[in-house]
Amino acid sequence: MKSFGMSNRIQDTFAQLHSKGEKALIPYIMAGDPNLAMTESLVLTLEQGGADLIELGVPFSDPIADGPVIQQAAERALHSGTTLKKILATVTNLRKKTSIPLILMAYYNSLMAMGITDFCANAIQAGVDGLIVPDLPPEESDILYHAAQASGGPVNIFLLAPTSTAERRRAVIQRSHGFIYYVSLTGITGAKLTDLSRVRQSVHQLQRTSRKPVAVGFGIASAEQAGEVGRFADGVIIGSALVRHIGEHHSAPTFLTDIQGMAQEWKSVLLPVTGKSSTRQKPKT
């Protein structure tokens, strides 16, 4: 299978971070929660706080991989009138203000409703860099893969779970571009991460096998946990803890200031120890 040969903001960002010995901070927010105007503000605020890449969830009525926190955020976003088309328009607006890599996390039905070819063309035109489709196995991704390749992106990022078979691991390593998303636990978003040693072992194995950046998500709720994961992973994805805060405090006068402070705290634990840099071999993207 051919690979995406073009440079991509995701790949460039991981390469730059690696050269500095930093690990990527990747916050996840639900687009349209509580509305798309706030989504724009949140993206810019998170970037100012130190986020390196940002995931934008596309609200869906049957999110099988998501726990109650993300589900409720999706309900709020849908209630506010958020659609995939409006999210792409938001990304277009954001691209006038920022070049931070933006990754959509969407269920396949949402893409099919727009049409796979149209979605890929619209996404790359808007400025979307990457795409995560949690309910699409890599073995069944040919249509999306070829449509994305024909449009020049966005690149596909697949998930690996602790229960993934060796065959699935090979497929994900082959078809993921930008980075590999390692799901730290068996369950839904928002569950507690308890067995960090097993996660470390799996990430190290992936890094040795693929040399692609590996970002870890699911179950990371605090700066302390982010720092622990950042000692071995190339990126840390924080979703439910941030989404919960947005849901509970978006009306507070200090809301955006608080969000920026949270991002700064998370990023601070992903910076290199002074005078040292990562010794891991430079990853391929």
Note the main attributes of this structure.
285 residues; alpha/beta; nine-stranded parallel sheet; 12 helices; 9 strands; globular; disordered N terminus
Strands, helices and their partners?
Blueprint: H1 9-20, E1 24-30, H2 36-49, E2 54-57, H3 68-79, H4 84-94, E3 102-105, H5 108-114, H6 116-126, E4 130-132, H7 142-151, E5 155-157, E6 159-160, H8 166-175, E7 180-183, H9 196-210, E8 214-217, H10 223-230, E9 235-238, H11 240-249, H12 255-268
Parallel strand pairs: 1-2, 1-9, 2-3, 3-4, 4-5, 6-7, 7-8, 8-9
Describe the structure concisely.
The protein is α/β, with parallel strands linked by helices. It contains twelve helices and nine strands.
Could you describe the 3D structure shown?
- With 285 residues, this protein is α/β, with parallel strands linked by helices.
- The chain is built from twelve helices and nine strands.
- Helix content is 47%, strand content 12%.
- Strand 4, helix 7 (142-151) and strand 5 (155-157) form a beta-alpha-beta unit.
- A nine-stranded parallel beta sheet has the order 5-4-3-2-1-9-8-7-6.
- Helix 2 crosses helix 4 (84-94), helix 4 runs parallel beside helix 6 (116-126) and helix 5 crosses helix 6 (116-126).
